[in-house]
Design brief:
The chain has 276 residues and is of the alpha/beta class. It is built from nine helices and ten strands. Bound molecules: phosphoenolpyruvate and manganese (II) ion.
């Protein structure tokens, strides 16, 4: 039996709500679809991920897509739907903001802002989010070094917003069998270099649903403070990132696996919204 591992004493927790705190003993799992596609699917997903034990709902409104011909998200129209679904489920909610001009609008609907990998070095955006005072998940750029990642976080912090959570989501390497390569080494290195909580997105890293559970387990074992996982009511019909989305039953199973890993490490998982 391994000795229980304390979360890094250097980690300064980021509080979103009383029940949703990153970097504390409890792991926080953020879950939801890549993109909001309508009220029914986001409502069903919010309920399902809450019942499985997720601590926060995710859902994209403004989607940065590699191809301009792909679904770009529902845009502003998605924000009240996302907020409504989260409110009904009793979960806080995160969504991506991709343009400094969208920040004022997005902060009205979200409890936490997401800066996507493709925006990690959008300095006007980082500055605007820094002024907003909303907690932020900053995703690592596709080809960013850890130094560049940490300096991007500082662009937010120097504007007065200290509530930054770092998210490792895989980097570009020569390997093409997975969508990206999850850099597990980043977790202990970032925790050594900074007091910011570190979470991992196994969905975008692996790019395939069957890779999500092993990558998630590895991330928890390596000391991640939480996870961000894509979940869709009917993964095959997902309008974006269909290959990597988990269905509701798969997500519930993943949460049971995460619980077992967390228990071995002496770290509970946030149980917002479900009876303990
Ligand atoms: C997302 O979270 O849906 C997303 C687009 O992720 P990333 O910015 O990491 O590619
Ligand atoms: Mn996605």
């Amino acid at each position: 039996m391994l000795a229980p591992t304390e979360p890094s004493t250097r980690t300064r927790p980021v509080t979103v709500t009383a029940a949703c705190v990153f970097g504390d003993r409890e792991l926080v799992v953020i879950a939801g679809p890549c993109a909001v596609e309508g009220i029914e699917m986001i409502r069903a997903t919010a309920r399902a991920v809450r019942d499985a034990g997720a601590g926060m709902l995710r859902g994209g409104a403004f989607k940065p897509r590699t191809s301009p011909h792909s679904f770009q998200g529902m845009g502003a129209e998605a924000l009240p739907l996302l907020a409504q679904a989260a409110r009904e489920a009793g979960l806080p909610v995160i969504t991506e903001v991709g343009d400094p001009r969208q920040v004022d609008l997005v902060v009205q609907h979200a409890d936490m802002l997401q800066i996507g990998a493709r925006s990690m070095q959008n300095y006007p955006l980082l500055a605007e989010v820094g002024l907003s005072r909303k907690p932020v998940v900053l995703k690592r750029g596709l080809a960013a070094t850890l130094k560049e990642f940490l300096l991007a976080a500082e662009h937010i912090q120097v504007r007065g917003n200290e509530a930054v959570v770092l998210c490792e989501r895989g980097i570009r390497t020569f390997e093409t069998a997975s969508r990206f390569t999850l850099d597990l080494t980043a977790i202990p290195l970032l925790k050594q270099e900074t007091h910011l909580p570190v979470i991992v997105d196994p969905s975008h890293a692996g790019g395939k649903a069957h890779l999500v559970p092993p990558l998630a387990r590895a991330a928890v074992a390596a000391g991640a403070d939480g996870l961000m996982v894509e979940v869709h009511p009917r993964p095959a019909e997902s309008r974006s990132d269909a290959d990597q989305a988990l269905g509701f039953a798969e997500f519930a199973d993943l949460m049971r696996q995460v619980d077992r890993c967390a228990a071995v490490l002496g770290r509970a998982r946030g149980m917002t919204g479900v009876e303990q």
